[in-house]
Amino acid sequence: MTKMEEREVRDAIFEKYYIVDDLYNEVEIKDIEKSIEHISYVQADTVSNDPDDDYRVSSVKWIPFENDWIYERIWEHSNIANNELWGFDVIGFKDSAQFTKYTAPTGKYDFHLDINGEGINHRKISIICPLNDDFEGGGVEFKTGRDTHALSLKKGQAVIFPSFFLHRVLPITKGVRKSLVQWVSGEPYR
Question: Which of 161, 163, 159, 160 is nearest to 189 (CA)?
Answer without folding.
Answer: 163
